[in-house]
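A student in our group prepared the protein record below, which I am reviewing. Thanks in advance; the entry in question is below.
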Amino acid sequence: MRGWRTLALNLATGLAVIAAEMAGFLAGIDWAAALGPREALWLVVAVNLANIALRHVTRGPAGWCDRNREGGR
């Protein structure tokens, strides 16, 4: 596929803008007030435990990068 670098750069730029907007929006929310202090604490614990479990279940690299498929590049 020709032009994949241009597509990747534009996609990365667009995703960065969206991520920055989402981070700004989510940072402005007082999660303890929205959920209650106890629920907010358990939400953070649940997300962390889910990340730990996923890290132990997955075997390959993050994303679509597969070093064995492309000859180690």
